[in-house]
TrEMBL record:
GO terms for cellular component: catalytic step 2 spliceosome; U5 snRNP. It holds the Pfam family PRP8_domainIV. GO terms for biological process: spliceosomal tri-snRNP complex assembly. This is PRP8 domain-containing protein.
């Protein structure tokens, strides 16, 4: 694998060679591979692949120009969030990323051009979509999830569905509140 990466980098023009290469451990590779397969669901990549008439090597910057204003950790986390949601619900994710025709992507960018505040709102909607998808797939009342459950679901860590008893807590609290108001 290292030889293939080195050969690939040497084949690039000097100005195209990356300044930095990130290496991951083998245990992280499989989950990341599944996430990066979501790139094929992005229209820019799908169109590029469909129009290809012969094999060619291309480089895409999945971060667009995010690293100019945001830390690399935050950028990587945001990208993983987008890819994870694309796997969960492609159509809804596309609507969140591009809610109307006025939302555009700059030339040579993959993702829409949004302000930092707009990205914060988009990320919140994407997180909600992941939680809703988890609840639907696992037959879980998402209101019963505690903050650590939500964090684990978003990060993709293995989580057990909350017990039936814990799922009833929000309903019991609501009934108690209604009775005390009456």
């Amino acid at each position: 694998m290292a030889e293939e990466v080195a050969a690939l980098i040497r084949s690039l023009r000097i100005e195209e060679q990356p300044k930095q290469i990130n290496v991951t451990r083998n245990g992280m590779l499989d989950p990341l591979e599944r996430l990066f397969q979501a790139c094929l669901k992005v229209e820019e990549f799908g169109d590029f692949i469909l129009k290809a008439t012969e094999p060619q090597m291309v480089l895409f910057n999945l971060y667009d120009d995010w690293l100019k204003t945001i830390s690399s950790y935050t950028v990587f986390s945001g990208l993983i969030l987008i890819l994870k949601v694309l796997n969960a619900n492609t159509e809804r994710t596309k609507v969140i990323l591009k809610p109307d025709k006025t939302t555009i992507a700059e030339p040579h960018h993959i993702w829409p051009t949004l302000s930092d505040n707009e990205w914060i709102k988009v990320e919140a909607q994407l997180k909600d979509l992941i939680i809703a998808d988890y609840g639907k797939k696992n037959n879980v009342n998402v209101a019963s999830l505690i903050q650590s459950d939500i964090r684990d679901i978003i990060l993709g860590t293995q989580t057990n569905a909350p017990s039936a008893q814990r799922q009833q807590i929000p309903q019991i609290e609501k009934q108690t509140k209604e009775q005390s108001c009456s």
